[in-house]
Amino acid sequence: MKLSARNRLTGTVVGVDKGAVNSTVLIDLGGGVIVTAMITNASVADLGLEIGKTAHAVIKASDVIVGVD
Question: Phi and psi for 64 in degrees, rounded to 5?
């Protein structure tokens, strides 16, 4: 897979919570780190996402916002 995005995090799908239109997908990156993404149900089906499958979280953003209390 070739992408212009520089941040590709590979892990294992540990959850797919389907809603009416979108699904919340949880990808375990290891070391207690889980990335959560919301994608369409159609994308879940097209990608064949299911628990235990390897998946990539691809992040492309020009800004990262950090905050503290």
Answer: -125, 125
How remote is the C-alpha of 62 from its chain's centroid?
A: 18
| φ, ψ for residue 66, nearest 5 deg | -120, 135
Q: Look up the pTM and report it.
A: 0.84
pLDDT single digits (tens) 32-50: 999 999 999 999 999 999 9
Contacts of 18 (CB under 8 A, 6+ apart): 41, 44
CA 1 to chain centre: 16
Q: Tell me the residue ranges of DSSP E strands in 1-69.
A: 7-18, 22-30, 33-40, 54-59
